[in-house]
Amino acid sequence: MTIGFDLDGVISLLPFGFKQIYQKAKGEEVFWRLQSSKWLQKFYNFFFRKPNEEIWRLMKLYKENGHRVIAISAASETSCEETVKWLKHHRFCLDLLHLRTSLLESVVAFKRRILKKENCDLYLEDKEKIVKELNLLINPCKILLYRPGRISELFKILTR
Predict the structure, then answer these.
(1) What's the average pLDDT block by block, 10 residues per block, for the chain (160 residues)?
(2) How many CB atoms are located within 10 Å of the residue 77 CB?
(3) Record's Gene3D superfamilies (predicted)?
(4) Tally of helices (H runs) and strands (E runs) in the chain
(5) 124: which DSSP letter?
(6) CA angle, corner 107, sides to 124 and 91, nearest 5?
(7) What's 123's domain CATH number?
C-alpha cells in the first residue's frame, strides 16, 4: 500500500493565522514563490513550520508495517534541500518526497500526476477544495481531508 501526505497543513502544522494568509493568495503562488528563496525557506522552517506528531506516528506505524510512505508538496523544487533537512531533523519516515518542478503547473494537476505516477492508494490533504477536485479526477486512489485530532478515525480507514 502506498500512502501519500501533503506537506504544509498535514506533515507540518502551520500556526494560526499564517494558513489564512497563504490560502487567500492567488492560487497560493505567492506563498510558494516566497519559499523559493533559500534564506526565506530557512526562516520559514525555523519559525513557522512545526512537525505534526500525529502524522509522524502514523507514518512510522505504516513504515514499520512495510507500507510505502510519500510526501507531495506544491512547494517549488528549489526548496528541496531545506525541506529535506527539516524532514530529517524531525525524523519523518519517508520513501519519497515530490516537489513541483514548475510553478506553471497547477497544484491539482501536479498532485494528480504524482498520485497516478506513484500508484498511491490513499492521500491525506488539508485543503477541502483540493480534496474535492482530486476525488473527481483520480481512481482508485482515495483522497481524504485531514484535520488534526482525527488519527483514530484515519487509522481505522487505513487498516481496512
Answers:
(1) 91 63 48 61 69 91 92 82 88 93 86 93 90 81 83 63
(2) 16
(3) HAD superfamily/HAD-like (3.40.50.1000)
(4) 8, 7
(5) E
(6) 45
(7) 3.40.50.1000
